[in-house]
Every structure is written in structure tokens, then in C-alpha cells.
Amino acid sequence: MEKLVKQYADAGDIVSLKYIFVDALDDDPTFTKYEEDYNYCRAIPDLLEEHVNLTPLTSDPAQWTEEYWVKLKLDLKKNFSDRRMSHMRKVAKVLMAEKVERLLKERQAAVRPAPAAPVQSAQPANAVPKAQPRVSIKTAEEQKAELRAQIDAHNQEVAEKQAAQKHAIEQKRAQFEREGQQEKGGTSSKKLWGVVLGGVTAVALIVLIIMLILRQGNPEM
User: Fold this and answer.
1) Which contacts qualify for 213-221: CB closer than 8 Å, 24 or more apart?
2) Per-residue pLDDT averaged across 178-185, rounded?
3) What are the boundaries of each domain within the chain?
4) Does an H or E element contain 185, and which?
5) What band does 161 get if pLDDT is binned at 50, 70 and 90?
6) pTM of the model
């Protein structure tokens, strides 16, 4: 399980978890990398929402295009439902079939056992034995130091990856917040313009009424 996902899950950071899973299928369309994480997070209250019909979900693979995929991702940000996520997992395997095939081959190669060493033929009795290379024996302290260096290097690599992922999530959150503020700002401008227009109309009506009253009192106007 990804350490960053568990950190967000234990903290109840629903927003960050949604950002991770929205892009998870682009990273791994087989979803193998995120399967355990998603199953762990499904039990978190308020993560999964009741499904709301936005872009119609189609079961026709001929309509599973890039444009359809983008719409599904946008809908998932608005309504993170398990039904939409399950549908997107099917679409990803078809739309990104080449990447799926490549990932499966890489994973099969990673678990494939190493080839057995060739059997050496027996040497004749009068053959001169070959000199064996001198093997340097490391002390226990040297072995500990080497192991410690490997562990430190691994921990540093993991920390760098987590920091990069966290930074990307924070950038996306900031972007979504800016987009939300822009939408609110546009709505406020429209409301302000409506108020101004209504005020101007009211003033014009008052002036017209005053002129009519004056004209009735003084017909020569």
C-alpha cells in the first residue's frame, strides 16, 4: 500500500485521496498498483458519493474516446461514485490497451525466475585445476555499513517520490481552488451588473414619472 495514501486515509483527507484516484488510471490503467489502496479507502466515510448522472455512461467501446475519457474524469471530480470509478476501470483497459500490454509484460518479466546456471562438464583426471579468484571477505561491520547505506538510499528515494507526489497533489488542489474562485467571481460580477442595471432602470422610471407629473401641472411644457 502506498504510504502517502495511507497517510491521507488515516488523516481523513478526502480531497487529497480523490485527487490521487482521479489520476490513478492514467498512471496505471490496469489499476493493479492502486487496487489495495482503493479497497482500503472505500470504507472511509464521505469518500464514495451516491452516483449522480452527469455524462451518460455508455457500454459501447466504440464511443470510448479521449474526449469521453476527459468528461468522465471531470465528472469523477464532481461526483466521486463507485459506479463511475468501476466504469472508468473498464474504459481505461480498452482506451489505453497498449500501455496495459506493456505494463503486464514488464510485471511478468520482473517475476520470471532467473535461468539456471549451465552444468559444467567433469574435468579429466590429469587436468590442471584452474586458479580460483580470490574472494574478499567483508567484515561484519563492513556488511552492516553497506546494508545501512542501501537502506538510506532506498528511504531517500521513497521520500523524494512521496514529496513529488504530494507537491503535484497540492498544485492540482490550488488549481481547482483558483478555478472555483474564478467561477464565483464571474457569478458575482453578473449579480453586480444586474443590480446596477436595475438601479439605472429604476432612476429612469422615477425621472419619467416626475416629468409626467410636471407636464400635467403645466400643460405648456
Assistant:
1) none
2) 70
3) 1-110
4) helix 140-217
5) confident
6) 0.53
Place of cell 453578473: 190
Interacting residues of 19 by C-beta distance below 8 A, sequence separation 6+: 169, 172, 173
pLDDT, tens digit, for every residue of 90-147?
999 999 999 999 999 998 988 876 566 665 655 555 655 565 555 455 566 666 666 6
Length of the chain: 221
Cell matching residue 151: 537502506
User: Residue 84 in 3-state DSSP?
Assistant: helix
The residue behind cell 449522480 is 52
Residues 6 or more apart whose Cβ sits within 8 Å of residue 169? 16, 19, 20
Residue 2 buriedness (CB in 10 A; 0-12 / 13-18 / 19+): middle
* Residue 174: burial class (beta carbons within 10 Å; 0-12, 13-18, 19+): exposed
How far apart CA 50 and CA 80 sit, in angstroms, is 8
